[in-house]
Amino acid sequence: MIRPMRPVIVAGNWKMHTTPAEAGELARTIARRTNEPGVVRVLCPPFVCLTAVRDALADEPAGRGVAVGAQNVHHEPAGAYTGEISAPMLAGLATWAIVGHSERRRDAGETDELIGRKLRAARAAGLRTILCVGEQLADRDGDRAIEVVDRQVRGCLAGANPGLAGGDPLGFTIAYEPVWAIGTGRNARGADAAEMAGAIRGTLAALGFAGGGEDVPILYGGSVASSNIAEFMAEPSIDGALVGGASLKPDEMAAIVARAGLTAAARAAAA
Ligand code: 13P
What we know:
Layout: E1 8-13, H1 20-33, E2 39-44, H2 50-59, E3 66-70, E4 96-99, H3 102-107, H4 112-124, E5 128-133, H5 137-141, H6 145-157, E6 172-176, H7 190-206, E7 218-221, H8 229-233, E8 240-243, H9 250-270
Parallel strand pairs: 1-2, 1-8, 2-3, 3-4, 4-5, 5-6, 6-7, 7-8
């Protein structure tokens, strides 16, 4: 089988940081500092900052190659859901969406079933999606990490068409984010993340994904920084990073995307 050349992606999840007054300038600075043509860059600010980030990137020559993403979407397209934002509402504001982040599983009680509905709603609205999965520390310590993530992937994809990407190489991405590594400064080891990426592709293959899931990009997330990005990008099964805290720091993003660019160039040369 000829292995597809998967894209290299660096997505920044700003979480609940920045105001509309600050976000545009931060996005512009990051765009200028990360102008690396081989790397797909995505910035995911809070909903209220999407307009500012979109406009700042449109005004900045280096910003044209940076996509904007939402951190969540509702599972219904419209309705009586106070305080929620649906995928179709993001038209013109964002082209990507994160679903299933562990902070939403924890704080908003999102289940795999609900996350699956969000995923399908986002795809139906034409958004490129990043589905987050990852185990708790007790699962890793108890040797259950692969089993837990397999269950999450199956639960989120239940009923989903394996053609979820819709022919778009960026339509469907998975981010492996071990919960114990998020915001803790304690990142997973590259080899463990690679093992998990292999296991996730095994699950996708079992679910009937074309090419055994080999064309689905898998990112690592959890305390990614300039100091450890190389460990992940050195793994052929890892296609980039979903960056939290470091994505608010232009110096960090510059170094992270620069290292991802080396992998992108090596893949292009080998293709
Ligand atoms: P940190 O990079 O801050 O650990 O956050 C990771 C994350 O949750 C990205 O979605």
